[in-house]
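Aim 2 progress update. The chain analyzed this quarter is reproduced below.
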Amino acid sequence: MKILKNFSFNLIPLILILMVIGLPVTGFSIGRISTVVSGLHSPRGLAFGPGNQLYAAEAGDAENDGAIIAIRNSMSNHATYSTLLSGLSRIGSEGEFIGISGISLLGRGANQGIYAIYGESPQATMGNDTFGSLIRVTSTGGTQTLANVGSFDYMWTGNHSYLWEEFPDSNPYGILALPGHIYIADAGANTLNDVLPDGTVRVLAYFPNEIIRDAIPTCVTQGPDGALYIGTLALVDTFQLGPSAKVYRVDPAHVNLGDPTMTPMTLWATGLYPINGCTFGPDGNFYASELFTNNFDDPRGDAVKIPFSTPGTHISLTNGALSYAGGIAVAPNGDVFVADGTAYCPMAG
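Predicted structure tokens:
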């Protein structure tokens, strides 16, 4: 059963973050779905920080710049939010806007860092150095640019143009901040990157092309075994062949920095609709948002749970109740939060 508070999918085309409380049902689980925050502008990445405060990245739309917001009391019926950082650059037209996308939290208190990544690259945006950059946002709203991953990957793909017909290209999208390393999934370069504390950018792995087109990695998260798990969009292949998105496992201790195309990786889960966000929950299981679960013109997205011990099991949490789902985060109490209306919605252009 589904209960939507103050919201109708047919009557009020708002952009939402939804809280999904899953029920422990094997194979299929749909719990109570409630609106936590509405009226956002292309919400993308989600991440929890100290004090169970939820943070969200908004890429922006035709009338609104990008922003990073902090949501308090997200696990209650009285959630409120404030804008931590506003006026962030965005580009695009009707459909998908490109701006701030992935977000990840690291540290506590005064040492807390909110790390966020812009899509695209300076080379693709008329020299605008904002795009493709990795930034650190302090708890008081100050910013620091750490590196331009988009520019690095654009040049790397230019030097490896034999890998894919559309290179050079880059679009940093997913991010995971861990002590000493910030990992980036680049959906344009099809790479997994590592940014070191001194700003050095490295390519750790290259994800192979699909049957028809490229892999498009969109998210990266760390599993209970310490390895990195990367979800792909596999958009065109899903259009033509059915659910083709994958989850790869990469051990950061065994990468091939000399030739990232040779980094060993394991195909951990397959047969998913386009993955737009992923994370591991406190239960040790993998959670992903699916951009859509039917076809692109019928934007019924989903949140799915994949037990860590049985990656062939995919448990739907919303039964297609979302619309172009984006980032996903799991609270300490197990509640699942999903950014809804991440692109191609009326209020997003």
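Helices lie at 149-159, 235-241. Confidence is low (pLDDT under 50) at residues 1-16, 22-26. These observations will guide the mutagenesis experiments scheduled for the next reporting period.
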